[in-house]
Amino acid sequence: MIKNPYTVNLDPESGKIEGAKLTIRRLSDMADLYLEGKEVSLSSGVDPIIYEIYECSHPSLEGDMNFGTTVMRPGKVGKEFYMTKGHFHSKLHTGELYQGLKGIGLLLLQNQDKEFKCLKLSEGTLAYIPPGWAHRSVNIGEGPFIYFFIYPADAGHDYESIMKMGGFCKIVVEDQGKIKIQDNPRFKA
Amino acid sequence: MIKNPYTVNLDPESGKIEGAKLTIRRLSDMADLYLEGKEVSLSSGVDPIIYEIYECSHPSLEGDMNFGTTVMRPGKVGKEFYMTKGHFHSKLHTGELYQGLKGIGLLLLQNQDKEFKCLKLSEGTLAYIPPGWAHRSVNIGEGPFIYFFIYPADAGHDYESIMKMGGFCKIVVEDQGKIKIQDNPRFKA
Question: How many Cβ atoms from other residues are within 10 Å of residue A163's Cβ?
């Protein structure tokens, strides 16, 4: 239990939060998730950072909240835009709020009934993710896409369910210079 | 239960959130809370807005979250800086997060053991209010003080406990041109 109130500083330009725990996700951490992830990963000989997470997390207790920022790099793996791993919350009935800070991104959402939604985020957008919706972010801009997030501390992360389904039912690709949301050929309904 | 994900836009300059519920708190809504509140209220003949709240709230269910902004006007009632009513959460074991957007304010915090904390907020400050801490904001700047807030949707607001105690144990006043945190003479421990 967190006993005492505290402050930390968030730099909206870089997305950095002083004193927060930093997690770095590289292509090698999630090559399976992209259609051409393994080929690109092996052939390029480099292992780019896809996104970084600065998080202030607390013990997993109902009533507390965890919060932080995600700083997504711009880029593509094959024709797919850089995206996060995506997850349900382990405690399914817990929501999450995103606040766009910089850049342009898409928030892909999918519930257990396989309903799909896509929301666009930029600076000043507040996106409410109700309980029960898995969420993945995609950087569709030319610079970093940065957002603030906050969710109940007892929510937990379920990445497995998404992996087993082959990802979300849709993927976000560049096709002849345009951003398109297409059916994911690897999705197992 | 909120079924579908959605977005709303937050203007960090004005603090306005499109489509959010607006609540306006005037001096007459809280004259009791200021040492000279009733005298000022009666003598001035005007009823100034102290602060406005733009809130996106959801049914009171565990796992959901409510969020919004508070836009505090600058000013004083007697020697006390404009402040919010202040409250515990009815469900005591629920936290809250504040994010400073504009201006300068103080966040006064007090728990049931009468421990007191004061945190300073400005643009980019994230303040975590752990479960069990009553909270009140004070605008100590010369312009609006605006912050974003988010808390569990089942938290509820307990204003009564603060009223019965005569407020927080400290008040924030201007004394000979300086901002001072002083003992609240009306506080009943």
Answer: 15
